[in-house]
Design goal:
Layout: H1 10-13, H2 19-23, E1 49-58, E2 61-71, E3 76-80, H3 87-95, E4 102-107, E5 110-112, H4 116-120, E6 123-126, H5 138-148, H6 153-166, H7 182-194, E7 200-204, H8 212-227, E8 231-235, H9 239-245, E9 248-253, E10 256-261, H10 263-266, H11 273-281
Parallel strand pairs: 3-8, 3-9, 6-7, 7-8
Antiparallel strand pairs: 1-2, 1-4, 4-5, 9-10
Helix pairs in contact: 5-6, 5-7
Length: 293
């Protein structure tokens, strides 16, 4: 994938929507019933994400504490942890929205924050709190996002219309985002993250509040993006989804990495990813601890 071309040419105006969008357009597509082609070997080059000694301190608390992590390019990477573990803070530092107290961030070989503008051209983001412009329609917001990434207006308009149709958000074209449900806001954010064909997706709980049909479509699209060489960095509390989608996972607890590798490498015996997660973050309280329950 290449960063957006800001030159308006006849060829650019005819540029197709990413191949993934056509493949995922069938909401009834079943990933377990369709043979999946092998994922391409990532070309030689820098990792998608390199974090070294990353620390973020708020007051007297380290939200992220000396985090070192490498995410290979072309990988579907799950970043897991309990509430308050430091996942969202890490993503904010990757986006350049929160400067680290200590440590270095490299994205696709570029240094944040020194090359933040160049980095932002290469990433697509679905934030946890879905900060969208509430007084725009979904179409206006997605088109605006494309223009901010440098797409010519006709290309941004055409891609925005196709993305809104793909995510079934075109039924009420005059409806403002302020009137959207949480699931609709997530789908709108996902559409906006795709419009410029980024090399790296940062996705904080992208499936939260999304119905089963919409979530299946989003998963199909993300898998297709990885097959075309993009990298997905995903946080989710739905561990079954992570186990099914991700090549590798890292688990963070109290701001520190406690596990990093493939699910197969990290699991012990027949335990599930949920078993592994609970074992590593120290959970496992039982309702039996209250005799009246």
């Amino acid at each position: 994938m290449e960063p957006p071309n800001t030159e308006t040419t006849g060829q650019e105006l005819a540029a197709p929507v990413p191949p993934a969008l056509d493949v995922a357009a069938d909401n009834n597509l079943r990933l377990d019933a369709v043979p999946q082609p092998p994922r391409p070997v990532a070309p030689p080059g820098p990792p998608a994400i390199e974090l070294r000694g990353l620390t973020k301190i708020y007051g007297d608390k380290a939200a992220v504490d000396g985090l070192s992590l490498t995410v290979p390019a072309g990988c579907f990477f799950g970043f897991l942890g309990p509430n308050g573990a430091g996942k969202t803070t890490t993503i904010k530092m990757l986006m350049g929205l929160a400067p680290p107290t200590v440590g270095t961030v490299r994205i696709l070989g570029r240094v944040m924050p020194a090359q933040s503008l160049e980095i932002r051209q290469l990433i697509g983001v679905v934030p946890d709190d879905t900060l969208l412009f509430d007084q725009l329609t979904g179409l206006e917001f997605v088109e605006f996002t494309g223009r901010m990434y440098g797409l010519p207006r006709p290309v941004a308009q055409e891609r925005a219309r196709e993305l809104l149709a793909l995510f079934e958000l075109d039924g009420a074209p005059r409806k403002l985002i302020a009137e959207y449900s949480k699931g609709m806001r997530k789908r709108t954010a996902m559409a906006a993250s795709l419009i410029h064909r980024p090399q790296l997706f940062l996705m904080d709980e992208p499936f939260e509040g999304v119905d089963a049909v919409g979530a299946r479509l989003m998963k199909d699209i993300l898998l297709e993006q990885v097959r075309h060489g993009a990298t997905i960095f995903l946080t989710s509390h739905v561990l079954e989804v992570v186990e099914r989608l991700c090549d590798r996972v890292a688990i963070i607890n109290e701001g520190r990495i406690v596990a990093d590798g493939t699910v197969g490498e990290l699991r012990s015996g027949a335990e599930t990813l949920e078993d592994l997660f609970v074992r590593l973050v120290g959970g496992g309280r039982s309702a039996e601890s209250l005799d009246w329950l």
